[in-house]
Amino acid sequence: MLIFAVLSGFGLAFLAPALSRVGKQRSGWWLASLPIILTIYFLTILPGLSDGQIQVFSYPWSTELGLTFSFRADGLSLAFALLVSGIGALVAIYAGGYFGTKAPLGRFYLWLFFFMASMLGVVFADNLILLFIFWELTSLSSFMLIGFEQDREEARAAAIQALLVTGSGGLVMLAGFVLLGQIGGSWELSTLLLSSESVRAHPLYLPLLILILIGAFTKSAQFPFHFWLPNAMQAPTPVSTYLHAATMVKAGIYLLARLSPLLGGTSFWFWAAGGFGAITMILGALLALSQTDLKRLLAYSTISALGSLVLAIGIGSETALKAMVLFLLAHGFYKGTLFLVAGAVDHETGTRDVRELGDLWRKMPFTAVGASLAALSMAGVPFFFGFLAKEYLYEAAYKVGAFWISLAVIGAFLNVFIAFRVGIAPFWLPAQGQTKSPQKVHEAPWSMRLGPLILGGLSLLFGVLPQILSRNLASTALSAAAGKPVQVKLAAWHGVNDIFLLSLLTLGLGVGLFALRKDVQRLAEALSLPWSLDGVYKRSLDVLFAVAAFQTRILQHGYLRYYLITIIVAVVAITSGGLWRWGGGTLPNLSWDLRFYEFGIALIIVLAGGMATLSHSRLGAVAALGVAGYGVASIYLLFGAPDLAMTQFLIESLTVVLFVLAFYHLPQFTQLTPRRERLRDVLIALITGGLMTTFVFVASGIQIHPSISQFFVETSLPLAHGRNIVNVILVDFRGLDTLGEITVLAIAGIGVFALLKLRLDQRTPKARKEGEKMGGGGER
Amino acid sequence: MTSLILRTMVRLLLPLLLMFSVFLLLRGHNEPGGGFVGGLMAATGFALFSIAFGSETARRILRIDPNTLIGVGLLLALSGGLITLWLNQPFLTGVWFKVPLGTLGKLELGTPLFFDVGVYLTVWGVTLTIIFALEEVR
Lengths: 780, 138
Hints:
The complex is a heterodimer of chains A (780) and B (138).
Chain A: H1 2-19, H2 27-31, H3 33-50, E1 55-62, E2 67-73, H4 75-99, H5 105-124, H6 128-146, H7 153-184, H8 189-192, H9 196-201, H10 205-219, H11 228-231, H12 237-246, H13 251-263, H14 267-288, H15 294-315, H16 318-349, H17 365-379, H18 385-400, H19 402-428, H20 446-464, H21 467-482, H22 498-515, H23 517-527, H24 534-555, H25 560-582, H26 596-614, H27 618-638, H28 642-663, H29 675-700, H30 709-720, H31 725-733, H32 735-760, H33 765-773
Antiparallel strand pairs in A: 1-2
Helix pairs in contact in A: 1-3, 1-5, 3-4, 3-21, 4-5, 4-12, 4-16, 4-20, 4-21, 5-6, 6-7, 7-10, 10-13, 12-15, 12-16, 13-15, 14-15, 14-19, 15-16, 15-19, 16-17, 16-18, 16-20, 16-21, 17-19, 17-20, 18-19, 18-20, 18-22, 19-22, 25-29, 26-27, 27-28, 30-31, 31-32
Chain B: H1 4-27, H2 35-53, H3 55-62, H4 66-86, E1 96-100, E2 106-110, H5 111-135
Antiparallel strand pairs in B: 1-2
Helix pairs in contact in B: 1-2, 2-3, 2-5, 4-5
């Protein structure tokens, strides 16, 4: 069942373009049925998991490499999976109303469900390599979705940036995974988790941890890689909601939480994850202060929230992990809501600038309710889910020290400010500046109200009745993250203690800051520092392009003769290097016991070769080459290789035909090359010929692996039903090679066809101009 | 080239070469021959024909665009490998069937035949594509 749960999303993805035609913009309502079914399925296996059972699915993939197609469901993966499928369903419904008939919905649903399935793969994969593959698939679908509006340049640039940052981070992580697999002796997470002691004591622990942290940090937008996330807001809002707030950016969090029983608990883990998490938490919130765009405000606060999640994992105590699990869910609910609301507001008013929005509750009452519930949860108002999560985070930080708790408070009260700015002000307060909304504002359609209302409602429900969560989801998820069975008891009210007073202080500071929002923003704009690698990213991209252009100019100059020289000299260099490393090799004993006709054929070949180089007529040279080829073919015939000889004869004949056809188009043969260049060519030719001769002699005396000729001779008839061993090797024993070769042949044929025909065809001047603009080197 | 001798010879040679190419293809599994050399042989026939009569005439009597031959050939070779997947065997495993032919004995047929026919068509198509394209360069 688990395997179907993961993979069914891919099936739906590829059918989505066709299916979304049924019902057009309403198709989301019924396409969402798969994520809804998945959500229900995950909820039904949850009770079993909390009793300690673990669902496993395993299918051997490439056993020689230790790779298996293995999935495993435990509390932690299920907590993420519920977010993925649940919010996925709401976003699928929402998208229909959001896009209407304006956008290609089929393509959107394709990548949305493709992402959903990949993300489920990430959280359920038990094999490290499998996890990596799904991880990169999420980056890929994120690329396609950020660049969904592909005709806008900013969207394309943002998509490429996100892909390069998260994709290369993923590759770094793969290096870490390989180290981990080598050290731990297994590629299965479930096996690795049992050997945590030996991994942590290994000298390669530090390198592998750094590599994996870079992977997680790029994905989860941690400082200094956070810059891609605000840019990713170029994506349509349903995408920002789903990928860049609720799920994909949490993949890094998932990975760290998953590996914390294995790699965590060391002081380096604490300082790396805790330190960078704390920096990201504060920096994200500070950078948000100067923003006025709803989505960018939310993006920076997401960076901040991701920072606090990493911080909690870095602290790593039981309370901290409890805070992580709760905050993960709470953030998914409230941030998902606020993004959906931002999209609805943008959709209905035509602006996302918080200064231009005000008093929307009159026009959009349902959206206002959803937004307010989420904002109160985000601000950490008591009896909201966000409050609970923040309480535990404070408690965990409080135990570590005063420095950490003050950081947590700073991060949290800045987020209170953002919560009020995004979720309260536009709906309940008058607009700051002029409202110049061009559209007549009205409430969003039901498809766009449903998500905010449900997620906002959950933010309140779990705040008032956290007991619903405690036994099943929270306990099982926490047990998986802590690596040992843990029971969680959650209550809405903890009594008045230091932590509660800190919460009140946070709220007070946040609301105070909000009251001064005009001055805060002016100050933040004045101070705004380019504290990010965005500039470094742009500069390194420029350098990359410059290097690419440079090496293309050097290597792809378009002169056939220099291409030939390059290829030949490179072959000579590599081959002689290889010969030299081999130790020169020994020439085999040559026997001069030749028949007179063998000697005769050799003489003919040599003479024909000389003729081909010295001839002043093209036709003469080609005919001489043909004679040399026929000579070689006769040698094949003499030494019992009729197949080879036959093919060689035909090839030689066809080559002459081809040459003659080509010569027809060449000008009269003249010698234009100066003497020096011809001498150089003679030198190259002599060295190449000499080297190849030596190589053949040396190679014939070397046998690295035992010969398999005998195997072919013995098994050709019984196994492959053929007496012609050459052909049996071609079509059966080495069939895959032949398939590759004829594919290359076909591509070469099409290439020749294209080169000749594209020049032939009478193209319009415009098309030719465009062809030249594309820099067609093949034209020369 | 409008040599009468060449034209007369080619008219006779083309059917012979084509038949010989099929013969080479079919005997290839047991005797010298095979799809590659067969395809070259067939292409040689048409190359001669197009030299004698021009590529337009050669294209007309070939009836099929050589580009199509390439595609069909690749598909055939690939399907020769894929058939075996249905039988739960690895890609490109040779699977053999015995077809009883009454008094003539039994004919052994296998998926490598598909593969070899695919090679034959691809080689034929690629060679002719190049030759025709070269001839038609203006």
